[in-house]
Amino acid sequence: MLGQTLSAADYLARVRDEIARLDARSVENVSEVIERAYDANRFVFIIGNGGSGANASHLCEDLAKCTLCDFESQKRLKVLSLTDNTAGIMAWANDEGYERIFLEQLKNLASPGDVLIAISGSGNSPNILRAVEWANEHGMETVGFTGFSGGKLQAINTHNLHVGIDDMGIVESLHQVVFHWLIDDLHRRFAAKHRPAARNGARAGL
Fold first, then answer.
1. pLDDT tens for each residue of 14-64
2. Among 8, 67, 111, 203, which residue has the fewest nearby CB atoms (within 10 Å)?
3. What does R_g of the chain's alpha carbons equal in angstroms?
4. The pLDDT value given to residue 3
5. Can you tell me the distance from the alpha carbon of 104 to that of 34, in angstroms, rounded to the nearest whole number?
6. Which stretch of DSSP H or E encloses residue 17?
7. The model's pTM
8. Cα separation values, 29 from 2, 33, 130, 137, 205, Å
9. Measured between alpha carbons, how far is 145 from 30 in angstroms, rounded to an integer?
10. How far apart are CA 180 and CA 63, in angstroms?
11. Could you tell me which of 89, 116, 124 has the C-alpha nearest to residue 105?
């Protein structure tokens, strides 16, 4: 929580305690959702605001590149962060309102069976909620990453990974810890489906 001062040791201990409280089965379930999308050639879209928007971009990059064991012939995950279309975001925000910046992109790009990963510490960001509601109504599978009380988002996702602490920095940090585990697990899952031996050292740039 902003304004609260802890020693480095106390802060790290708090992060350690919150990691221990995470539901491992919920974490594993997210990996399974993404694997199903990969197998079915479906798109995975990722959205978030602020620090969660930066996490969305980071997760997208890692899912696209760091799940590969063979750059030349391995099947690739179709993944896109909707936080990175700067001109599109500004156009919708300026003309129609910030709450539409993700929803309207999904209308252009998404299809039934695709996956939407929605990251919101509060769980109450209007642009996140609008996008998830639309995705649910149009046959997409929705995955939420939330903090604090989980907000409205926790209640409307198909799947949810919740960090139950009232500290946005720790929430975003723990989301990132989970994302990095997902990359490792999905690299393993995808490699098992790809028979040729790894040649290119795709993991070297992590």
1. 999 999 999 999 999 999 999 999 999 999 999 999 999 999 999 999 999
2. 8
3. 17
4. 53
5. 23
6. helix 8-21
7. 0.92
8. 31, 6, 24, 22, 26
9. 10
10. 10
11. 89
Residues 103/76, Cβ–Cβ less than 8 Å:
no
Q: Return the structure tokens found at 104.
A: 């309207």
| Residue 174 in tokens | 């723990």
E strand or H helix that includes residue 162: strand 159-162
Which pLDDT band, with edges at 50, 70 and 90, does 197 fall under?
low
What number of residues does the chain have? 206
- 13 contacts: CB under 8 Å, gap ≥ 6: none
Q: Which letter, b or e, does each residue of 175-198 get, where b requires 16 or more Cβ atoms within 10 Å of its Cβ?
A: bbebbebbbebbbebbbeeeeeee
Give the residue among 200, 198, 168 at the shortest CA–CA distance from 18: 168
Tell me the average pLDDT across 68-96: 97
Angle at 164 between CA 58 and CA 82, to 5 degrees: 30
First CA to last CA distance, the chain: 30
Q: State the amino acid at position 54 in one-letter form.
A: A
- Both tokens of 84, joined, read 């990175």
- Cβ distance 6 to 12 under 8 Å? no
What are the tokens at 17? Answer: 């305690």
